[in-house]
Automatic annotation (TrEMBL):
Residues 77-266 form the ABC transmembrane type-1 domain. It is found in: Cell membrane. This is Carbohydrate ABC transporter membrane protein 2, CUT1 family. InterPro entries: MetI-like (IPR000515), MetI-like_sf (IPR035906). Keywords: Cell membrane, Membrane, Transmembrane, Transmembrane helix, Transport. The lineage of its organism: Bacteria, Pseudomonadati, Spirochaetota, Spirochaetia, Spirochaetales. GO terms for cellular component: plasma membrane.
Length: 281
């Protein structure tokens, strides 16, 4: 009886310790966003104080108004949403079909082609910026939203993530579909794809976060406000001789809120998506 009570006390103590560690980690993770939000409510003089103050002494909201006045912020929002939607829909469709083919359809050279696509993950993104720019110039797509979105409309990571999920689904669906006379696309669309909601939602979160935060490629391919996205637009607040940190913080808060809301509402799919990449194939 005494040993059982001691074990229960030990379990409670471990849970309390784990809870404290997780809470502390959560606070550390949230601290940059809290600092950014509080800094957006400070005046420029207060923000540059030494030593800095954590909480604003006299909170002001004019920084948000100045950002909306000095930048076509709603236009940047619209462009970012359009690019994100285009990339997300394209990745879900293209990566799903490619993943199904590599997981369930046997064809010559399947493994070699799959390894070749995975090798793309080892190529630094910066190495393909110039080739991508030359291709867009050749196609006449420079300074268009399609050019901003096009390089992110398929990803080897998304294909790999969904393939890992398709490998966990039984092959009997494939056999039954063939018996009923379905084509490979029919089997994919009617039998397999409806079962991949978890993996698709995880890919959606990864794609939205990547697209929303993308900076270098939109900066290179966009040359006017008509095609600039939020990340590039906020960078315009950095002048050659003066940087408006408080306005940058205000713009960053407005740009970050939609992604935070999406992550909070779909965080279980995000965790499951990370776990999917470790499924043995």
């Amino acid at each position: 009886m005494g040993n059982r009570i001691n074990r229960q006390k030990g379990d409670v103590a471990r849970k309390v310790i784990y809870g404290i560690v997780v809470l502390g980690g959560g606070i550390l993770m949230a601290l940059p966003f809290i600092w950014m939000t509080l800094s957006s409510l400070k005046t420029e003089a207060e923000l540059m104080m030494t030593p800095p103050s954590f909480f604003p002494r006299n909170p002001v909201t004019e920084n948000y108004a100045l950002v909306m006045r000095d930048l076509p912020f709603l236009l940047f929002y619209r462009n970012t949403i359009m690019v994100t939607v285009l990339r997300s829909v394209s990745q879900i469709l293209c990566c799903s079909m490619a993943a199904f083919a590599f997981a369930k359809i046997r064809f010559p050279g399947r493994n070699m082609i799959f390894l070749g696509l995975l090798a793309v993950l080892m190529v630094p993104h910066q190495m393909i910026l110039v080739p991508n720019y030359i291709i867009m110039r050749f196609l006449g797509l420079s300074n268009t939203l399609l050019a901003v979105a096009l390089p992110g409309m398929f990803s080897a990571f998304g294909m790999f993530l969904l393939r890992q999920f398709y490998l966990t689904l039984p092959d009997e669906f494939l056999d039954s579909g063939k018996i009923d006379g379905c084509t490979h696309f029919g089997i994919f669309a009617k039998l397999y794809f409806p079962l991949t909601q978890t993996a698709v939602m995880a890919l959606l979160i990864f794609t939205v976060m990547y697209s929303w935060n993308d900076f270098i490629w939109p900066l290179i391919i966009s040359s006017s406000d008509r095609t600039r996205v939020l990340s590039v637009g906020i960078a315009l607040l950095q002048g050659q001789s003066r940087i408006f940190y408080n306005q940058i913080m205000a713009g960053a808060v407005m740009a970050t809120l939609p992604v935070i809301a999406l992550f909070v509402s779909l965080q279980r799919y995000f965790v499951q998506g990370i776990a999917l990449t470790g499924v043995k194939g």
